[in-house]
Design brief:
There is one protein chain. With about 500 residues, the protein is an all-alpha fold. It has one domain. The protein is built from 18 helices and 2 strands. A two-stranded antiparallel sheet has the order 1-2. Helix 7 crosses helix 17.
Length: about 500
């Protein structure tokens, strides 16, 4: 109860006119920056860090929190409308959101995403207030074998539910894992797949891969078929969610935080894994399997809610342990140090006004985000009225600008085009794009955690399954892999039972 009393005091800090202004500025800037491909929340906070030097710490961090949530929502906007993720956490939103937009339901997809962000952020922040010490204790106890098991779960789960076959999903995943190998080996420093190029020694940024596979690949695919299919603008459709959409989405909005919040709190977590797992969960539970891949609203509502809740989980580790689990948290940690404040177990005692004002501002930021973006959903959707040749030309331009902004190297544009051609080939042969992006994002971390686990166990494979958590996860993986066979055997057994009953 003491935490909630402190939170009430935090609202007294967050609801002052000046701090409300900083929250609104943060949400607006974050949304605007998140819409630009390649410029995610981490870069936004880093760019705006010098601007806050003259602010007092509480106002600065309230604005940072607004930028964080706003940029996460802005990234989903371009994912849904243009199939161009603004950042890696918005990749999953494109899978069902963009088909919805192409079918004239872009406003509904944006509204489902906005409400999902609101629900996920609210539930995640309540969990942050209530469970921060407990989640922090759990995060400290999770080791390399557990991280590796979770990443294998993400690989298996996504490749098993996407595409027309598991083989194609696995092929897509291998493409992503190969791209993820490019650069220096993190443990030995040896170059891998760089072909002697120093520019490739740092690896290929995941934003370039995501923008290349989604935006460039999509633009090239559309260009290849424009002459055959015509260049009509995509319809906008009705502006608001129907009652049927709400009935299908509300459970997804509530399930998302249960997946997103814990993953945000653990190192190597962030929003990528929970959004993938939320997508898989919603597809498994959906009663409308025929719509998946063509615009199932649950595939937008659940992952976006999980993404927002993971942002609250990220703050648990940063505030209670001083442990940044995402790039944004790392930049915010640098900002704390800039003000001479050290996050950790004593932060809540030494800087209670700052911490509880920041947490209260998350609630305020969520309300502002919903109030600003829900009415704007139909306006954003009108982007789709632009004729497709002009629309995709603009996408190519902004994708190139975003990719160049990541590293400032001309070779990034060449890599973007090559990966775009790979994306075009994947569409031509029916390979799902998402497993490839997962491979790039999680592949290097999975390799690092695997090698750490094997080092701890002196090379023994049994070291990968020596914790209850990892054993549980591998049991779940075995169930996912075996489920199609079990389902087929069960169906045959039921059919035989019915035939015997009918014969009798």
């Amino acid at each position: 109860m003491n935490a909630f009393n402190s939170l009430i005091g935090g609202f007294g800090t967050a609801l002052t006119p000046l701090n409300l202004l900083w929250a609104a500025v943060g949400v607006l800037l974050g949304t605007a920056i998140g819409v630009l491909p390649g410029i995610g929340p981490a870069m936004a906070v880093a760019l705006l860090l010098p601007v806050t030097y003259g602010l007092e710490p509480t106002g600065a961090f309230i604005m940072f929190a607004g930028i964080y949530y706003g940029a996460m929502f802005g990234g989903s906007t371009t994912s849904i409308l243009l199939n161009t993720p603004g950042e890696s956490a918005a990749v999953v939103a494109a899978m069902e959101g963009h088909p919805m937009a192409r079918a004239g339901r872009g406003a509904q997809a944006l509204a489902a995403a906005a409400i999902g962000h609101f629900a996920g952020g609210m539930i995640g922040t309540v969990l942050l207030v209530a469970l921060a010490p407990t989640v922090a204790d759990l995060a400290v106890g999770i080791g390399a074998p557990d991280y590796f098991a979770v990443m294998v779960l993400a690989f298996i789960a996504v490749t098993s539910v996407l595409g027309s076959s598991r083989v194609r999903g696995l092929a897509s995943l291998l493409i992503g894992l190969t791209i993820g190998l490019v650069g220096l080996d993190q443990m030995t420093g040896q170059q891998r797949l760089t072909f002697g190029s120093l520019q490739l020694a740092d690896g290929i940024d995941v934003v370039i891969v995501a923008v290349g596979l989604f935006a460039i690949g999509e633009a090239l695919w559309v260009a290849a078929h424009l002459r055959r299919t015509g260049a009509d603008a995509i319809p906008v459709g009705r502006p608001w969610l129907a009652r049927k959409d709400v009935r299908r989405s509300w459970k997804s909005w509530l399930r998302g935080p249960l997946i997103g919040f814990p993953f945000g709190a653990i190192p190597a977590g962030g929003a990528e894994i929970p959004t993938f797992l939320s997508y898989v969960t919603e597809k498994r539970l959906s009663k409308h399997q025929e719509e998946w891949g063509k615009g199932a609203i649950e595939g937008v509502a659940g992952p976006e809610s999980a993404s927002s809740a993971s942002a609250a989980g990220t703050l648990v580790s940063m505030l209670t342990l001083g442990l940044p689990t995402t790039a944004v948290a790392a930049v915010m940690l640098a900002a704390f140090q800039q003000y001479g404040i050290q996050p950790g177990p004593l932060l809540f005692e030494r800087e209670p006004d700052l911490v509880w004002g920041l947490i209260a501002s998350l609630f305020v930021g969520m309300v502002l985000l919903l109030a600003l973006n829900l009415p704007l959903a139909p306006l954003w959707a009108k982007l789709l009225r632009v004729p497709r040749p002009y629309l995709y030309a603009g996408i190519l331009f902004f994708a190139a600008v975003g990719a160049y902004a990541v590293g400032g190297e001309p070779i990034d544009l060449v890599i973007l085009l090559v990966i775009g051609l790979v994306g075009l080939g994947m569409r031509r042969y029916g390979l799902p794009v998402l497993p490839a992006v997962i491979g790039v994002i999680l592949g290097p971390n999975a390799e690092q955690q695997l090698r750490r686990a094997l080092q701890i166990s002196d090379g023994s494979v049994s070291g990968l399954v020596d914790t209850p958590f990892s054993v549980t996860v591998y049991g779940l993986i075995a169930l996912i892999v075996a489920w199609p066979l079990l389902k087929k055997a069960l169906t045959k057994a039921l059919a035989r039972a019915r035939s015997r009953d009918g014969g009798a």
